[in-house]
Design a protein that fits this description.
This is SseB protein N-terminal domain-containing protein. The protein is of the alpha+beta class and 144 residues long. It is built from 5 helices and 6 strands, in the order ααβββαβαββα. The protein has a domain of 93 residues: Trna Endonuclease, Chain: A, domain 1 (3-Layer(aba) Sandwich). Helix 1 runs antiparallel to helix 2.
Length: 144
């Protein structure tokens, strides 16, 4: 039974957020969070609108506490803070796997910056995920 009077920031809004919320539990499996990210729609904010299939996207890149660049990704459009929309007013949905497939080698990623349903992955972590996780249509090629 879920009470709707709770602030949206305190309740998971989708499967990915439910996995992020459970990630703090002692018996949590980080693979569940990674798979939820890869297999669900996530959102970028861009300074440019996407007008067609050949449109380029200029996603919002922030700096983490160490001053390193991180791509801002959101689990739900409502998680995009107004301050981010001032810089990049267009919210674009895509699969998490597409983001990891297209992010550069020097760029980290932050999911839901400023939200309790968030986390950061450094470039090495992204490379590890790319190495260890294959899309479902590629999974048959390598069995573990």
């Amino acid at each position: 039974m879920t009470e709707q009077t709770v602030s949206p920031d305190n309740e998971p809004l989708n499967d990915l957020e439910a996995k992020l919320a459970s990630a703090e539990q002692p018996d949590a499996n980080p693979v569940d969070v990674i798979l939820a990210f890869l297999n669900n729609e996530v959102y970028l904010v861009s300074s440019e609108a996407v007008d067609g299939p050949d449109s380029s996207v200029e996603p919002l890149v922030l700096s983490n506490a160490d001053g390193q660049p991180v791509l801002a990704v959101f689990s739900h459009p409502s998680r995009v803070d107004e301050r981010f929309l001032d810089a990049a007013p267009h919210v674009l949905g895509t699969m998490g796997s597409a983001i990891l497939g297209n992010i550069g080698d020097e760029l980290g990623m932050v999911i839901n910056p400023g939200s309790e349903f968030g986390f950061e992955i450094d470039p090495e972590g992204i490379a590890n995920i790319r190495r260890d996780f294959k899309r479902a249509d590629e999974a048959g090629e390598s069995a573990e």
